[in-house]
Amino acid sequence: MKKYILSLAVLSLFYTKSDACAWSDPDYEYFNLFTQSIIKDKSYLPFLLTYSNRFYGDYKNMTIPDDNIETWKKFFNNQLNYAETENLVYKISMNDLNALKNGTPNNPLLQKLGTGFYQKYKEGIDYLIEAKYLEPYMSINYIESPDSFYSSPSRSQNATSIDYAKTVNALTSLYNATRNPEIKQRYGYQLVRFNHYTRNYDAALEAFKTYIEPIKQKGTVYFMALDQLAGAQRGKEMNSDANWNFFQVFMNSRDRKESAFVSMKLSDTASFSNIMKRAGTSDEKNMAYFLLGYEGFTDPIPIMEKMYDINPDSEILKVMAVRSINELERSYLPIYYYTSDATDSPNVMRGNTDDHNKASADTKSEPVEVKKEEKLSFWQKIVRFFKNLFGSSKSESANGDKNDQSDDDLLNNPDRIPFYTKSSYGYDEKTNDYLDSLEKFTEKIKKVSKDEYWQIADAYLKFLKKDYKGSSEVLEDIKTTNPEYLEEIKRMKVLNDIVSHPKIDAEFEDHLMKDYAEYFVKKEVKKDSTAVSDYDYYGETPSTADFLKDVLANRYFLQGEDGKSFLMNNKLSDLQYNPNSSLVKSVEDFYKKPNKTQFEQQIIAKNMDNVGNIDAFFSTIYGDRAMRQADFEKAKSYYEKAKGFAGIPRMNYDWTDKGEKITPKQYTADEYNGFRGISDLVFGHNVWESFGSAETESMTAEDYSGFPFIKNNMNKLELADALIQLKKISNGTDEKAAKANQLIGNLLYNTSSLGYYRQLFVMDIDNSNGGKYDFWNTDRKNPYKYYYKNFLYTTYIEPDNFDLAINYYQKSLKLSKDKEQRARVLFQMASAEQGKYYQYEAKNASTVNYSDPKYSEKEQAHQTELDNMRNEKYRTYFAQLKSQYADTETAKGLAGSCSYFGYFLKR
């Protein structure tokens, strides 16, 4: 069969953890409130719950003792510490050991031990010299199958690279000459391993029987050799025996559990079921149950009950429990809450949405739209990412994210945390019952187990059920000296205190700073903003502090304090991306609030960051909104206060051979910075619709000769002043008034979501970033339901009022006597009317489920309905242009340059 080497780019698609997209890693999608790693036996850390890797990753930063090193340390009578022993066994070279043997040690550690060290431990040192000689060759020789699908790289040397007979004879001779049983057994281990790696499987089995078993020691070296024996048995397809021996290695070693587990999986497709049949002792049965539960995809509690019957103090029973708790936490407490269509009930980290409606009645024109939470699968996120990256057509964007949203419904129980009925992590609609069952099991086991772990677990499950009082009572009764347990108890007490508090007022904020400052005040690490560093795609794993920030952000949101809610999760500069007026006003109110509490000053206000002149920043946003509402006088009053505007805050991201260099964007003197650098083409009209082309290619100027106050290059204050003068002129009845009305209409259209200068009044630096100009959220007064944490992930800006432009065009059409000019104005009106249609389309998006058997015909019917509505109500000015002005040069030119107008003329 032809062999292929698979592309890394393709292979990367099959791994959950990707260094390219942070959102693809489920281990970064919950808060880690219950620390899995508090289990006492750290050798089981690889088997904690993870969805990012085959085994739990954090354990690599912790200490799982190496059994081999511990055994050598004991052999040397603890004369060396762990690190020194590891150095001697794994790192010091064979030449250094020979120098020690010859009485001339050069290595600092060996010099410290002295020449007498060799004489005292002669057999052990001689063995290490032999082992270091063999180690470079100790890998199995890869034999490629003719049916292999892809090639595998092989090491340049392996066990077949050295003389077989000479090596076996040498090891046998050393074995026979050695008197210390442990060292003797180590030579036997080398014989078993060497025969295994040279694929002399029968000789490996014989070597184990001849050189390992007669030494009646079943310690570390025995299980190292048993591991090699099992590998040889697998080579001989003695899968059941191999599997059983790997199981023994798994049970009796600390640092080999992960590799033994993998070997079991490779040895026997029915591995753990067959082990259960063979298990004889209680410990073996208990471990077999653990492996069955670890591999299973069903409710683990029945298996945990069986493990409880065998040994309620079993450490592996705690591993099963902590995995179950972690799975519940992931589903109950995701790091983001998305919204879609439907209602839901309050979560542990938020209150009732109606409270927000009442609290914010003075600041919001209508209640927050109640939406369903949305949890996206990995592939749904892939789809959304590329849709956001490449944009969509106007009809597609009108559908919003409805086709991406989950079909999961939430349990409508106000006394419980909502839960997805079809959790992406494997549970079904009985998950709440599962939480109840796990809590009952935990309460039962905590009464008989001596380990305080079960009390902590019980307290946490009560926390998930919003029984904060019950959780706190359990925590108060725990007596322990275990430092990891104490840290978890402390954290949970803080969680219960803060989450159970219904309102965050000044008194409670003082309490937070007095008692829990460590969760909110980060130790600032000063970094050079121009420094080059490796880019961290993931950032920090969500933590308890992050969860508490979200809780407070939600509380402020419900209390109507949107500005504080926003600043808990965002920086002031983030307002540029979704500058909706009510939120901006709330943030400004907080900014100007006198007598801020210490919490407000140190935790919230610190996010009033690098926008330069803050007052000018707010004034620019308000001025922009006034311009979009055609209130030019009001806009001017704000822009007069915005003269100190420092420019829209952006960063430059440059990649170098050393990493990524991040620097603040510096605007050139003639570059648009959000306030200055506006061309008079903003009053013109587009030659063709191309947002990526230069303005001189896409736009053409009108005749400004009668309006000398329109400058070639303006700032927003000058632009507002020019519009005020145009507005005065537009009140006349002559051709100049007609032209003034047209110019104002042009500006309003050109700065709408359809215009070339659509960035001008929405705090953006160019007309790209299409998501900001989607139509799908047109009717939303506030798309945020719980907090503003996902502020940058949600498109929202107040909708355009296309009627403002149309009204000015209407006046121009009425006053103008020039037929060509009237044709041009009609076309501009028709373009604005298209914007009104897109808004209508967005409000009437398709709700047909893709799984519907009649999806295609229903979608087609819906599209036909939209087309009919567009032709009946939103082609008014096209129809007028066709019927009354088709003979004009303007209309003929537009038919050639505007495809959809040309199509309309041919209908």
UniProtKB/TrEMBL annotation:
Record's keyword terms, sorted? Signal
Signal peptide extent: 1-22
Q: In which residue ranges is the amino acid composition biased (Basic and acidic residues)?
A: 352-366
Quick one: where's region Disordered? 346-366, 394-414
Protein name as it appears in the record? Tetratricopeptide repeat-containing protein
Organism, per UniProt?
Chryseobacterium carnipullorum
- What are the top taxonomic ranks of the organism? Bacteria, Pseudomonadati, Bacteroidota, Flavobacteriia, Flavobacteriales
